[in-house]
Amino acid sequence: xxxxxxxxxxxxxxxxxxxxxxxxxxDSLDRNQYAWAGAIRWGDFDAALTLIDPxxxxxxxxxxxxxxxYEQVQITAYRDRGSSVDWKAGxxxxxxxxxxxxxxxxxxxxxxxxxxxxxxEEAKTWWTTGGLPDLWDGQ
Length: 139
Known about the structure:
Keywords: Signal
Number of domains: 1
CATH architecture: Roll
Shape: elongated
Order of helices and strands: HHHHEEEE
Protein name: DUF4440 domain-containing protein
Distance between the termini: 72 Å
Strand order of the largest sheet: 1-2-3-4
Strand content: 25-35%
Largest sheet: 4 strands, antiparallel
C-alpha cells in the first residue's frame, strides 16, 4: 500500500511540474506577444527587433534605411483578429490588423499581418519568425 501511495504522489508531482512548465511557456508567449504589440503600436521598431528570432535576423538583417522608412509612419491601431497555438510543436500564429498613417501624406490605410512565433527550448522564450511587418504591403 505504501508503494502505491508513493507512486500516486510521484505522479501527482510530475503532473504539477508539467503544468508549471506549460504555464511558464504560456506566460512567456503572452508576455512576448504583448511586448511585440506594444513596440509596434508605439512605433518602437528597435524594441521589436529584440523579439525577432536571431537566426531570422542573421539571414535577413534590417538596414538603417529600412528602419528609417518605419519613421515615416504612425501606427494608429493594432488589432488581434485571431490566433492559434500548437504547444507540442512550439508554434503560434496571430492574424493582426494594423492601422497605418503616412506622416507626410496623412493617408491612412489598414494592413493585415501574420505573426508567426516559435518556442526556443534552449533560450526558454518565444521568437517571432517573420521579421517586422510590411506596412507598405508591396507599395
